[in-house]
Amino acid sequence: MRSTTKAGSGHPSTCASAAEIAAVLFCGEMRYDPKDPHRVDNDRFILSKGHAAPLLYAAWAEVGIVSREATLTLRELTSDLEGHPTPRLPWVDLATGSLGQGLAAGVGCALNARRIGSDYRTYVLMGDGEMAEGSVWEAAQSGQFHQLDSLCAIVDLNGLGQSRATQFGHDTETVAARWRAFGWHAIVLDGHDIGALQAAFAEARATSGKPTVLVARTEKGKGIALMEGKAGWHGKPMSAEQAEAAVAELEAQLVPEGGAGRPEIPMPSGVVTRPDPAAPAVVEAPSYTKGDLVATREAYGTGLAKLGVADARVVALDADVKNSTFTDRFEKVAPERFYQSFIAEQVMAGMAMGLAARGAIPFATTFAAFLTRAADFIRMAGISGVNTKFAGSHCGVSIGEDGGSQMALEDLAMFRAVPGCAVLYPCDAVSAEKLVATAAAHPGMAYIRTSRPKTPVIYDAAESFPVGGSKVLRSSASDAITIVTAGVTVFEALKAADAVAADGIHVRVIDLYSVKPVDAATITAAGRETGLLVTVEDHYAAGGIGDAVCEVASPLGLRVERVAVPGLPRSGTPEELMDVNGLSAAKLAATIRRLVSAR
Questions:
Q1: Environment class of residue 336 by beta-carbon count within 10 Å: exposed (0-12), middle (13-18) or buried (19+)?
Q2: Alpha helices of 161-219 — where are they, by DSSP H?
Q3: Which pLDDT tens digit goes with each residue over 129-143?
Q4: pLDDT tens string 307-323
């Protein structure tokens, strides 16, 4: 109460509805070492209803993780006790507050316990309003499919949303029936009854073969007459006078402790039968011959399988496209670390977040177009700063006849917008395999964009591909123009350069395999030496390679022209679509001649 009043904002009413739940969890049910947030076998807690952050901080203060004085810095610029919890605090695994995401992350945390052979449990506290999110039910079916009996969700069924009553109000049986239909063990109880909560958590711990959900009937603003069970208090702090009256009212309801003092927290068991290796083994090198025709999506699957053999931290997540993205090759070598989400990209992304938060290196892979369905999870993974890796295949118009619904033309923009995310776009099999290992080593999020068409191998197996690098494929002192490209259009650019060479036009070609961060030094030098940069990409103009190059070149006064997919795509052969969108070698050669002649 006091922290939200001092901050002048926050959610005291939603904290009050879950106070007993938090008290039982942090002061008796959960096994953790309050002095060591990084202990791998600590039980995990995810506050999916992140707006109840002051409750989490109050629970921490009670067990000595933070001071009571620190809770009064809530929402201040210099305080890590933010309005919604973030991993700036070592006890927070994932940023929450975008409702509907906590349970999916909890699935990932629970899978990680299985991966390392630990008996730690994962608890997810959810609001009843967020059950309207489809991602909750994606996570529910995934928890059931993976038989995660170490996962326990708690639904704070206080019956009130932000603007009105929630969909089911206090109808506990209807809510429980929905969870049971998804294969969960559901327990209905009074969420303010300490004994009932303790018994329910004990029952959850004893349940095997399926996850458990506590459907806890609560009252928003419980214990405070001014707001208990009343609408209109969502996100509203009390005045100083109201807060002091509320504190007095709550203190009058305290049960004498009998000198017990600070609660004794049960310690973890210490059981971790498959701890992570101190260092990974060396990844097997690519084994291609120059000129081999291999799709980068296939080389990605090969590289991921090799990485999985070398590093037990690496896991793969699939959305029922493993035979198209070639992640089934990982499944063959490490089936125990291959997790199926089916056609549910949101839970796949959430699972990856939870796994990454607990030390795994997850690669979540599907068609690039379908990753946009998980855009908010990707955004929150960025805010969490977790070590998630995403890979999207079948990008651009080059996929051909399947048509626009399958063509990722926005994915570079989506991932480039996430702070700290490395965006990698290989053009051949060697660079694809190497960039898988590069992404795994990158500290933070990474995205790998792979393509459907087979392209020739142009790099030696010994070539290195660091984040932030590029490869100059053609260069001379008489270059009149530079093409900056990546992926399938690298080969169209090379053929175009050959075509215009007959006209005496020399073209520099740069493979910008690292789209973020870009190789600013190479781009700058090329712009100054040739006088004109032309970006070419199988992507919409907004947010892709063109924007990445302009961010470097424009402040320096360097000229940039862009070639990108200009409008809505349609079905056709890859060759037809590349040509009609200006990306074919013939069309690029014409563009080069036009630009050079106009100078």
A1: exposed
A2: 172-181, 194-206
A3: 999 999 999 999 999
A4: 999 999 999 999 999 99
The first and second tokens of residue 186, run together, are 């559901």
Terminal-to-terminal C-alpha distance of the chain: 68
What pLDDT is attached to residue 256?
77
3-class secondary structure per residue, 270-305:
CCECCCCCCCCCCCCCCCCCCCCEEEHHHHHHHHHH
> Dihedrals φ, ψ of 567, to 5°?
-160, -165
What is residue 248's three-state secondary structure? helix
Active-site residue set: 345
Tokens of 244: 């002091």
DSSP-assigned beta bridge partners for residue 316: 338, 363
Q: Of 424, 422, 440, give the one whose Cα is nearest residue 432.
A: 424
| CA distances in angstroms from 245 to 223, 224, 535, 547, listed in the order given | 12, 9, 65, 56
Give the pLDDT of residue 396: 97
The CA-atom distances, in angstroms, between 158 and each of 17, 64, 169, 353, 372 are 7, 28, 7, 28, 33
Question: Helix, strand, or coil here: 251?
Answer: helix
**Cα Rg of the chain (Å, integer):** 27
- Report which of 431, 337, 350, 433 is spatially closest to residue 388, judged by C-alpha positions: 350
> Do residues 412 and 384 touch, judged by C-beta distance below 8 A?
no
Q: CA 30, CA 268: separation in Å to the nearest integer? A: 9
CB 554 within 8 A of CB 562: no
Inter-residue contact 63 to 22 (CB < 8 Å)? no
- Describe the strand order of the beta sheet including 361-367 as a list of residue ranges: 338-340, 314-318, 361-367, 389-393, 446-449, 422-424, 514-516
Nearest to 101 by CA among 78, 124, 74: 124
Rounded to whole angstroms, the Cα distance separating 243 from 250 reads 10
Token code pair at residue 75: 């929402």
Give every CB contact of residue 5 below 8 A, 6+ residues apart in sequence: 12, 237, 238, 239, 240, 242, 243
Do residues 184 and 131 make contact, with C-beta atoms less than 8 angstroms apart?
A: no
Asked if 125 and 22 touch (Cβ cutoff 8 Å), the reply is yes
Residues 6 or more apart in contact with residue 181 via CB below 8 angstroms: none
CA 516 to CA 549: how far, in whole Å? 10
Distance between CA atoms of 513 and 535, rounded to whole angstroms? 13
Instruction: Map tokens 């309801």 to a residue.
Output: 253
> For 386, phi and psi rounded to 5 degrees?
-85, 160
The better pLDDT of the pair 261, 125 is held by 125
Stated pTM of the model: 0.97
